[in-house]
What we know:
- It contains 21 helices and no strands.
- The protein is mainly alpha-helical.
- Helix 2 runs antiparallel to helix 13 (about 275-290), helix 3 packs antiparallel against helix 12 (about 240-270) and helix 4 packs parallel to helix 8 (about 145-160).
- The two termini are about 45 Å apart.
Amino acid sequence: MAKWSLRQHWQAEGGGSELLRLAFPLILSTSVWTLQVTIDRVLLSWLSSDAVSAAMVASLIFWTPLSLLYNTAGYAATFVAQYVGAGRPHRVGPAVWQAIHFSMLAGLAFLALIPLGGPLLELGNQPSAVRGLADVYFRCLCFSALPTMVTAAVSGFFAGRGDSWTVLLLSAAGMVVNAVLDYAWIFGRWGFPEWGIAGAGWATVTGMSVSALLGLGLMLRASHRAEFRTLAGWRPERELFRRLMRYGLPSGLQWMIDGLAFTAFMLLVGWLGAAELAATSIAFTINMVAFLPMLGMGQAVCVLVGQRLGEDRPDLAERTTWSGMGLAWLYMTAVALLYLAAPGAFLFFFQNDREPDQWPRVAELVPVLLRFVAVYSLLDSINLVLSFALRGAGDTRFVTLVALTLSWPIMVLPTVAAWYFGWGLYAAWTFASAYIMMQALVFLVRFRQGKWKSMRVIEAVPVADAPGEQPLSTGRFPPAARQTGTSSGHVPAPGLMDGTG
Length: 501
């Protein structure tokens, strides 16, 4: 009987089968992106240990501000999911276009950060060779900001509707272009000049541009233009843009705060020594290869939570979240066992025979660091799923508050103490692990409280006031309006809709 109940749960709405159908292409998509980053790092490690360290440090500095903008643009997926769930497809196109407008402006403004790369790298007290390479890589990456954000916004159109296979197509197209150009431009193959780390940077710019252009082309197909107003909805809408900023900016801010904390952590590890920095870079890369696919699971949970809340079915949103947590936990348990049982297998791809003096120390440190990863990754899977579920509801301010209040007191400032008092690399990693575990605990408490069930990011309007929509069969209001008890046709007070009331 228990076996039959488990099968029923798996196949029911909100169960693992429904979630996995949406999540699988998103998992492959994030795996493709992980493969792209890994190819970059592996090829650069063939160049030198300094190059892979420089790429890690430059990427962290680049992604710290970009994560704010990227995740703000990508939050369009939550608006799309809730509009689809509420039966209001004509609002999908305008919501995505607000994110595209934001991406264009923010991408151009991002270029102003290019002169700041050098001074920021000076703060890390890195070896001069690493600083020089990192500055070159950072300058290249800044030009990829605009197409990266446009890709995030356009991907939100497909992911929010449940069309996760198209998201995979966009990622795969960019990865193939990036990988081919990586090899050609880093080492000067097929008649191209040898650009070294700059080649890896410009390959990233080109790959992201291909993804952005392909995504825009697919979004503007005739069928999408007719149903979702993907062309007619291009005009800026002040109120809709304001709502995207109201919920998207806190979501992006959480990623930026988290990225800033880990960037500071990496810079501080650089103070401990070149081998410690290289080992940390490799351990984070190995962890990223295994963990980033779970971002696809988190994205799927976010989309389904948004759709279920748009339908006014918070019970199914909760069931979906628990299903996602179970699947993520099983996956990360298997990965953690691999970290403990075969750490040398992961090191094989990063081995560098050009630096015989430094590599043995790096190879000694990485297996120990992977033990830390094995421990915290189990709770990090909970952290990932629950934070995405809260974002799908619109509880983005709380998610940001968690990162703001925990990251520096638990991880960054204690790592400064580890450097100052000579506690060493393992003490620093203990603090980083504690931060990740504490996040998971706080998110679990917040989710269990259930406040997120009453939150929505879309506006509540009577069906009759929504131009271009067909009335619901019941003749009642959209689910978001019904949930707040507004039966008279009036829009509820903002606090009832955004969770602040």
